[in-house]
Amino acid sequence: MDLRYPIGSFEHTGEVTPEQRKQWIQDIAELPERAREAVKGLSEEQLRLPYREGGWMLKQVIHHMADSHMNSMVRFKLALTEDNPTIRPYYEERWAELSDSRELDVEFSLQILDALHRRWVALLNTLTDADYAKTFYHPASKETTRLDYNLGVYAWHGRHHVAHITSLRSRLGI
């Protein structure tokens, strides 16, 4: 198994069906509890373990999910209220090295994920097919992304990072 991608990389081709969107929304809804369960009972020392050699500490993974998913919700709102907006990229690896990501108790980001995902799911459940077809432009990748596809990316993203934590726990028996 590639420890960087314990569940593989995100792949989806073709149209995104309403059934697929429903599953991805469910994944988004379940992420906060899955993240909380993944770190349940871990000591501060264990939370400082990297999920793989050269990888982020488990606590950085949790803080990264909060940072990344906040950015994604903003991108959704921009796309819903503007015509193919150019979004603002950020250096996630630099954010992960900031003191809050390295030192702060993971509970704060778990609370962010809980509140953020409640709002995000409430919004996602009201979107129409036309809304999900809206797009944003990412200047770093030079790609235009539909919201329905981005929903899948973030459903995967949450599962991906939870698997970083749970696969390390499994490998170490913790």
From TrEMBL:
Annotated SUPFAM superfamilies: DinB/YfiT-like putative metalloenzymes
EC id: 3.-.-.-
Cofactor(s) named in the record: Zn(2+)
Location in or out of the cell: Cytoplasm
Domain DinB-like, residue spans: 30-165
Annotated Pfam families: DinB_2
GO CC annotation: cytoplasm
NCBIfam families: PRK13291.1 (NF009807)
Name of the protein this chain belongs to: Putative metal-dependent hydrolase AMS66_08360
Naturally occurring in which organism (per UniProt): Paenibacillus xylanivorans
Lineage, highest ranks first: Bacteria, Bacillati, Bacillota, Bacilli, Bacillales
